[in-house]
Amino acid sequence: MDRVFEGGRGWFCGGLRKEGRATVGGGVAGVADAGEGTHGAGGGGGRGRGWAEVGVDGLGRVMILFFNIALAHVEQEKRLSFIKAWEESEETKSINKAQKKLSALDAWENSKKAALEAKLKEIEEVLEKKKAEYAEKINNMVAQIHKQAEEKRAMVQAKKGEDILAVQEKAAKYRATGYAPKKILGCISF
């Protein structure tokens, strides 16, 4: 007994698509509708509603294909691709956010370094100025000490000259009077 199925629904069997009126039981394949879902190549009905295709291959075996499995597979792939796209989008956002923060940190670091280097240069200039002032003061002090030392040397030389002159005068006096000095070299006496 053959049952006839009407409708514009198509079915696949062995890669061929047949449309329109088909029969089951006489060696011709057909479509059995199990719900209100729509069907097209690669499309599918509503969730939970499905329909089965019944067909007979060349060897007389009945083939039943449940397109809900294919639809579930397509939905799963769609869901996974959406998740992957979302994941890539979120990763990109995270990378961009981190890159922005790193750029801000680099700019902050560079500005702080520049400020400290400017401050260091300013301090070096102040220190150089103070160093020059202290060097001038020290050189003036060295010159003053040298001058004092020269004055003291001159005084010592003058005193030495006076002492030698006094000794020579006393020696001339002793020669003139014929007296000998009482102390020779501070420890020998006559």
What does this structure look like?
- There is one protein chain.
- By secondary structure, the chain is of the alpha+beta class.
- It has one helix and nine strands, in the order E-E-E-E-E-E-E-H-E-E.
- 58% of the residues lie in helices and 16% in strands.
- It is rod-shaped and about 155 Å long.
- It has one helix at residues 67-177, and strands spanning 3-5, 10-13, 16-19, 22-24, 30-32, 52-56, 62-66, 183-184, 188-189.
- The termini are far apart.
- The strands form four sheets. Strands 5-6-7 form a three-stranded antiparallel β-sheet. Strands 1-4 form a two-stranded antiparallel sheet.
Helix and strand topology:
Layout: E1 3-5, E2 10-13, E3 16-19, E4 22-24, E5 30-32, E6 52-56, E7 62-66, H1 67-177, E8 183-184, E9 188-189
Antiparallel strand pairs: 1-4, 2-3, 5-6, 6-7, 8-9
The low-pLDDT segments are 1-52, 60-64
Quote the average pLDDT.
Answer: 74
**Cα-to-Cα separation, first versus last residue:** 177 Å
**Mind telling me the C-alpha Rg?**
61 Å
Shape: rod-shaped
What is the H-and-E element order? EEEEEEEHEE
Supply the helix-strand structural class. Answer: alpha+beta
Q: In percent, how helical is the residue content?
A: 55-70%
Order of adjacent strands in the largest pleated sheet: 5-6-7
Content of β-strand: 15-25%
**What is the tally of beta strands?**
9
**What profile does the largest beta sheet have?**
3 strands, antiparallel
How many helix segments? 1
